[in-house]
Amino acid sequence: MFLRSDSGLWNLDEKTRDYICRNGFSQNINADFTHSKKEYLIVHKSGGHRTFNRYLNKDWFKTVLVNGETCQRDYLSYSETNGSVYCIPCYLFENQTVFSKKGFSNWKYPEKLKKHENSEAHKICVYKMKQRATDLGRIDTTITLQLKIETNYWINVLTRVCSVVKSLASHGLPFRGTEEKYGSSVANSGNFIMAMELVAEYDPFLSQHISKYGNPGKGNTSYLSFYTYEQFISIMSEKVLETIIKEVKAVTYFSISIDSTPDITHIDQLSFIIRYVLPNGEPVECFIGFIDDAGHKAESLTEAIFSILKKYDLNVCFLRGQSYDNAKNMSGIYSGVQARIKDVISLADFVPCSAHSLNLVGMCAASCCEEANNFFSFTQNLYVYFSSSTYRWSLLKKYNNSTLKSLSDTRWSARDDACHSLKTNWAGVKKALLDLKHDKLQKPLTRSEAEGLLRQLSRLETSFMTEFWNDVLHTFNKTSKLLQSVQIDLSTVVELYNSLFSYVKSVREMFQTYYDAAKEKFIDCNKIPEFENKQRKRKKHFDESNDPGHTFDSQNNFKINTFYVICDNLTVELNKRKSAYDSIISKYSFILKIYELEILQKSVKMQKN
Question: Is the per-residue pLDDT at 1 higher than 60?
Fold first, then answer.
């Protein structure tokens, strides 16, 4: 087959394409470029104009790669007939650009050659030409050299970007800063740029890439911008979800846990967690995602749950458990979320969140009487008083090795820390308040507040409550941490609640122990205080006698109206919360008996051997 060297005269058909892919083509670099003459008109502001001519330049058949290497543009071919250059791969495989239709001849903008060779459509046509040559028994390595080098270069860049993204995302670190700019020593450029620059210090390839493409601006490819790592995060999250859903479908049965909390923008988000057991018996909890604007009504929450299960193609019939907090819209036995789901799947047993239930027990006990409320209010006021002034805080640290802690409405471990720090720093806090009370350089308000806090600290009730709540909250906090374990099961939950129940009953008999420990804090004082005797006066009716009736001394009054009230409240609430788990464990107790029987049989078999 004879093929003209002038690409503008080719008659394209399948035979022509096969011939060119197998044998190559002529670029006509040494041809006469006079036919490539193009005339351009320039109009001046004064109204005049002039014309000038441009021709094809032989240097435009070469390009400089990103690594600085000069390479031939083997895909171009000059047509003397048309006075233009054709991109042969695009010309053969009908890419809809000027390079394939009528040839490129706009010599005023030679940079369009670079733009074209980096386009996705051009690379696809080059790949098609290479693949066709391979099928015909010849691989044209020359024409695909540039594509290979470029591909390997960007793969190396993306490999490093992917590693940084995976590391930051797995540790839950933010990516962006106030100003995303490489090489900036002033602005907060964010963790992603910081990590990339750190890797570049030991990686010459990445260092060279950042120095050349670090701040390219919009419209330029660098794979170093937020758009790239956000795509990686999206791809990774989809892959993680795909793996989780695949595991859930493999084990068949699963349970769900739902909770809502407002984010920093005060928008309520519903977190969806799925729990399942692997074939090796290991329980797994996985976060699936947030559900926005699910509302607080049971009906809308139930619809949101079913929509998530449908979205990930999880069969609702295999749902075997549901766990929420103790809010009525979630745990209501008639119209709560758990009741609505059980109407659809009767085997989906509801298990209240054990850690949240324990928090509710503590909240009820801490607010059940006046002295309990006063004590926690005093603890927080004491922390606020010292922490609101650097001088007062430094004075407190002068007398103590540790500092006071603040309370928290949601984290009950913070209350344990606050009570423990007050007990540990009791003497130091008292000395610091005395110094502030008698310091005439302080403002009258500061001295008055110190005197009021010192008066409260000097009460026997405060000392007693410190000793009592320190023990109770410490035990509750340790139990709460155990209840939050992923590996915990219902039998362990019941055992922990039973142990707490027994502990509170034993604490009820330890009044004298706490009383003696509270009095020891006042050994250095001239006088040990006693409980305040607050007798409640009641208006008598006209037919009642003036007999005052039976009254208690201050110690028994505190014991009956404060200590016993708190202990009994803890006992009642624990028993109430525990009953929900007792009913569940009684349903599945046969599984534990089978397990115990297997252990017994193994032990008997070992003894026989």
Answer: no
More confident residue, 320 or 325: 320
Mean per-residue pLDDT of the chain: 83
Burial of 98 (0-12, 13-18, 19+ CB in 10 A): middle
> Around 383, how many Cα atoms within 13 Å sit in the side-chain half-sphere?
20
Residue 76: which H helix or E strand, with range? strand 76-79
Is there a contact between 573 and 364 (Cβ–Cβ < 8 Å)?
yes
3-class state of residue 16 by DSSP: helix
Judge whether 413 and 480 are in contact, CB under 8 Å. Answer: yes
Rg value, the chain, Cα: 40
pLDDT of residue 598 exceeding 60, the answer is yes
| Residue whose tokens read 């007798």 | 535
Q: Find out whether 261 and 289 touch, Cβ atoms under 8 Å.
A: no
At 107-120, the pLDDT tens digits run 888 888 888 888 88
Give percent above pLDDT 90 in the chain.
21
| Helices and strands, number each (H, E), in the chain | 24, 11
Assigned token pair, 415: 């209350």
Q: Give the distance, in angstroms, between the CA of residue 277 and the centroid of all CA atoms in the same chain.
A: 23
Q: Angle, to 10 degrees, between the axis of helix 511-520 and the axis of helix 460-483?
A: 120
Q: Measured between alpha carbons, how far apart are the two ends of the chain, in Å?
A: 89
DSSP 10: -
State mean pLDDT over 561-589. Answer: 83
Q: Is residue 538 scored above 60 in pLDDT?
A: no
Q: What is the pLDDT of residue 259?
A: 83
The number of CA neighbours under 13 Å toward the Cβ of 275 is: 18
Q: Helix or strand or coil: residue 289?
A: strand
pLDDT for residue 22? 78
Angle of CA points 396, 397, 399, to nearest 5°: 75
Instruction: Give the span between the Cα atoms of 254 and 358, in whole angstroms.
Output: 25
Query: Tokens 């026997």 correspond to what residue?
Result: 460
State the Cα–Cα distance between residues 461 and 375, nearest whole angstrom. Answer: 8
Which pLDDT score is estimated for 251? Answer: 92
Q: What is the largest CA-CA distance in the chain?
A: 133
Mapped to the 3 state alphabet, what secondary structure does 246-292 carry? HHHHHHCCEEEEEEEEECCCCCEEEEEEEEEECCCCCEEEEEEEEEE
Question: Contact at 8 Å (CB) between 557 and 534?
Answer: yes
Mutual orientation of helices 390-399 and 426-438 as an angle, nearest 10°? 130
CB atoms within 10 A of CB 339: 16
pLDDT at residue 257 above 60?
A: yes
Residue 236: which pLDDT band, with cuts at 50, 70 and 90?
very high
Cα(470)–Cα(418) distance, integer angstroms: 9
Task: Tell me which residue of 351, 326, 378 sits closest to 573, measured CA to CA.
Answer: 326
Task: Write the single-letter amino acid at 447.
Answer: R
Give the separation between CA 127 and CA 121, rounded to whole angstroms. Answer: 10
- Segment (H or E) for 319: strand 319-323
pLDDT digit string, tens, across residues 293-309: 777 788 888 888 899 99
Helix (H) or strand (E) holding 501: helix 490-507
451-463 confidence digits (pLDDT tens): 999 999 988 889 9
Q: Which of 426, 387, 391 is nearest to 522 (CA)?
A: 426
pLDDT at 542: 58
Whether pLDDT at 71 is above 80 = yes
Distance CA 257, CA 351 (A): 9
